[in-house]
Amino acid sequence: xxxxxxxxxxxxxxxxxxxxxxxxxxxxxxxxxxxxxxxxxxxxxxxxxxxxxxxxxxxxxxxxxxxxxxxxxxxxxxxxxxxxxxxxxxxxxxxxxxxxxxxxxxxxxxxxxxxxxxxxxxxxxxxxxxxxxxxxxxxxxxxxxxxxxxxxxxxxxxxxxxxxxxxxxxxxxxxxxxxxxxxxxxxxxxxxxxxxxxxxxxxxxxxxxxxxxxxxxxxxxxxxxxxxxxxxxxxxxxxxxxxxxxxxxxxxxxxxxxxxxxxxxxxxxxxxxxxxxxxxxxxxxxxxxxxxxxxxxxxxxxxxxxx
Length: 307
Known about the structure:
alpha/beta, 8% strand, 7 strands
């Protein structure tokens, strides 16, 4: 039995039946088969199947046209030159420019070396490069200005931390200084946080501000960071300085601000036993660090310790 007879056997006796070729029937059964559109498929335009197929194609075409026409309309709206659109575009441009400028200013400010360690404000005192590039140093002249109250309007409180050994401190120190030469001493500064509007500044020094003073300065900053790690970059003491040249340089030009007005070197021959004692006591925070003392200084130290 032919394909035509199997599909349309009941209709072949109908008066509306007309002869349909096998090719037409095959095209209806497999409408998705690829074929050359230039060749007539043999469809009769007004058959029910062809009308339904054509209606689906037209519906899809209309949907595509509607979709893309809306997209083009939306695109046209974005380039609309109406006064309202121009005003909106100008506001957006101004906001973008303002935001960019704010970011640039913030970055420049954070990169500035004049900011205190928590980035909250500028340093109060003028600084000099000094021997330690990572620390803020002041001259003995600036130290004297602080003592006579030149910066009293900007500074709430000043703590001068003398990191020399007690016999050095007793032999002469800066007025109002406190003697702190161990880690425990420095840690005692941290528990309380100054909440006054004016800053509480610290100024570290030792005999030359070359080893003990800088180490204590760095230790305090490390402990302060650890204490406030959950609130970074907050610090209890964001404004800290190192006295450039140490007590010796200050005593040379500012004796009137020393009490007593004298200077006792660390390697004083009368205090060799004290030196040995305090070096052992402070060993806990100097052990393992590279010694930067010159051969001449080591020779002098050994000679005095032999007394």
